[in-house]
Amino acid sequence: MARQIFKHLIDNPNIKVSWIKAHVNYPGNEKADELAKEATTTGQPYTVLLPTTHIKSALKARLLTDWQELWTKGDTGCPIHKVLPKVSLHAQNWSRELTIFLMEHGPFPTYLHRFRLSQTDCCNCGEPTTYEPILKGHQIHPADFNLDLQISTKVKQQYPIKNATYTDGSRTEGTGSAFCHFDQTATIIKEWQAQLHTDNNIFQAELLAINQAILFHQNKSNPSFIWTDSLSSLQAIQNPTSPHPLVQEIQNQLHSNKSIHIGWVRAHVGHLGNESADALAKDAIIHGTSFSLLKPLSHLKKLLNQELLTNWKKDWDKLNLGKPIHEIIPTPSFKNHNWDRREVMFFTEHGPFTSYLKRFNLRSSDDCSCGDIGTPLHYATSCPHTKNWHFSKPSSNNLLHWKKSILNNNQSRKRLQILMTFLMENDTLINGPSTN
Q1: Which one of 246, 279, 297 terminates a domain?
Q2: Does the keyword Nuclease apply (predicted)?
Q3: Which residues make Cβ contacts (< 8 Å) with residue 258, sequence separation at least 6?
Q4: Which of 69, 159, 342, 388 could form a disulfide with 420 if both were Cys (CB 3.0 to 4.6 A apart)?
Q5: Bridge partners, 49 (sequence order)
Q6: Number of domains in the chain
Q7: Same domain, 190 and 281
Q8: Residues 195 and 239 in one domain
Q9: Are residues 352 and 290 part of one domain?
């Protein structure tokens, strides 16, 4: 069609085709628009070849229909079917970790046991469905997400008691969640307490209290004011892409009820409302009504880290390698000790020392040029070449304490680093030429 128009324009140079803005009340354009709409029902039939885009659209529609039928009837992919019941060609952009979690195909005993990769389908952590899912993306359209008018994190001079609700969460030996509501005479007329599982964290307890307080006010027409001392909870609710299920539930509650407002109150400043909610939350750990809540992923991470450290400790104790470091750090951890490269060489005894270089035939002897065996201790305490940076020589019984005292003193560490720099820069002078 476009080629035919082009040919007509070539053959008829007096004909000009120009663009005009649509729907700006230009009489000619408006009249043509009216005629085109009328032609859809009363116009004369005209045969035009269908565009290839129509074929593509029809094939896509047919593909999606067949795919939807198989997806609904099929036995595989049930966990994903619950999340995405309707098929589409739209990419979900899920991360690998989220895909593994939602499919339940990953490092879970329930999955590994099916392929005999685990002797049991039980685990101290439980099944993956006992943990709250991660829900990424916007649950409310960004253009409609205007909760800032309902949430305040500003410090106020006075916090009301009359017709106000205060929430709090507590975690000591267990986890508790609670809220209390005061009437117009500043008397508590409603108390709610929930005893959560010990694996639930304080963040969940705070959010649950806010959630239940909103439910308490949901059917009221008058403005309702809820106060919490959890600033992190309010900041999470203000985040339109928060992945926490409880946060998203609260966001939907506030979105559907504009008369509910939530504010922040400082904790432990003697305010009656906050102190009352705090006391109820602590009491809820023992006397609250049992409330089932999915465990946070942070609990799973904690269990996995504990198991990793336990296995690491067993291997660390069994292996013969790394004994010099094992004496200083007998228990592995995720703590960064921030050792300098020169300190690592000294305490691992893997560095510019003839006692080490001889093992790899990089020196013909393990003797220092001064005649003694070139161990790290020798260079740090008695070698005449390094006299300017010597430490007091420890007894064999106090050697470990001597090493730890250096690491615990910044001045000693700095002196050791200078010593090691001198050894590396004067290796040939001190240790002799390399056999290579």
Answers
A1: 297
A2: yes
A3: 149, 150
A4: 342
A5: none
A6: 3
A7: yes
A8: yes
A9: no
Q: Could you give the strand order of the β-sheet that contains 188-196, starting from the edge strand earlier in sequence?
A: 151-152, 260-264, 224-228, 164-171, 175-182, 188-196, 289-290
pTM, two decimals, is 0.61
- Identify whether residues 265 and 217 lie together within a single domain: yes
Read off the CATH number of the domain in which 161 is found: 3.30.420.10
Show which of 261, 282, 297 is a domain's final residue. Answer: 297
Q: Which residue carries 């609700």 as its tokens?
A: 165
358 located within any domain:
yes
In a domain, 233, yes or no: yes
Residue with tokens 């432990």: 268
Q: At residue 362, what is the residue type?
A: L
Q: Looking at the domain assignment, is residue 312 inside a domain?
A: no
Parent domain of 175: 151-297
216: confidence class by pLDDT, cuts 50, 70, 90: very high
Residues 286 and 343 in one domain: no
pLDDT tens readout for residues 54-66: 888 888 888 888 8
Distances (CA, A) of 358 to 88, 324, 366, 373, 385: 67, 18, 5, 11, 20
Beta-carbon count within 10 A of 195 CB: 20
Task: Tell whether 28 is covered by a domain.
Answer: yes
What does the pLDDT look like over 297-337, one tens digit per residue? 888 888 888 888 998 999 889 888 888 899 999 999 999 99
Average pLDDT over the chain reads 88
Q: State the pairing for strand pair 260-264/224-228.
A: parallel
Inform me whether the pLDDT recorded for 402 exceeds 90: yes
